[in-house]
Amino acid sequence: xxxxxxxxxxxxxxxxxxxxxxxxxNKLLDVMFPRYCLICDVNIYEHEKYMCTLCESxxxxxxxxxxxxxxxxxxxxGRCNVESASAYIRYRSDSQYSNLIKSIKYDDGVILAQxxxxxxxxxxxxxxxxxxxxxxxxxxxxxxxxxxxxxxNQSEEIAKGISKSLGIPIQDGVLFREKYAxxxxxxxxxxxxxxxxxxxxxxxxxxxxxxxxxxDDVITTGATIExxxxxxxxxxxxxxxxLALGFTQ
Length: 249
Ligand SMILES: [Zn+2]
What we know:
By secondary structure, the chain is α/β, with parallel strands linked by helices. About 45% of the residues lie in helices and about 15% in strands.
């Protein structure tokens, strides 16, 4: 009996010492390699992953519920046939919060993209996902040159997070980006739209999939989503919804 208690205590102390060691290592790593809030640039603590607690609490969530029509969905009215649409964060390029989405694209942000996708998926689950019969997620594709350069497709990483929280599979090969787009910054709105409209081609999909969900990082003019939906509807009579991490209102 005494021996048993001793063994249990030993095991408890062993577990405790691992916990203490982990905390010490984390604290040491924080001192040696300080991490900074992606929003306000202050040092963040070991329990904070990407931003400080204050910035996280003030994150400009869009609250674009799928239960009713919302500004994201209304962006596409009269342009293409969207079943439902939502976005997680209100995106403004001059806001510090745009760093979150920029980091996904430019700073090897695979895990950040998946984490934000997971949080967004959880939010969607509580805000109207049950009203829709989503069959699969379709990430907006990158051109293969860009994919090679970046090493990953940020929309696909966001989709992985959403897939984990909503339990919906990702479908590959539905769309392809054929033309390599140069920076569109200096083009006017119409030529940008015209350029985008020609970039996507339909690859194919199983017949049993009737409701596709396009996943993108950020919606600004909506031209990319519009081009993809038009291309899908040229080939198939299916429902298409949209989920994006950011939305410029
Ligand atoms: Zn902060």
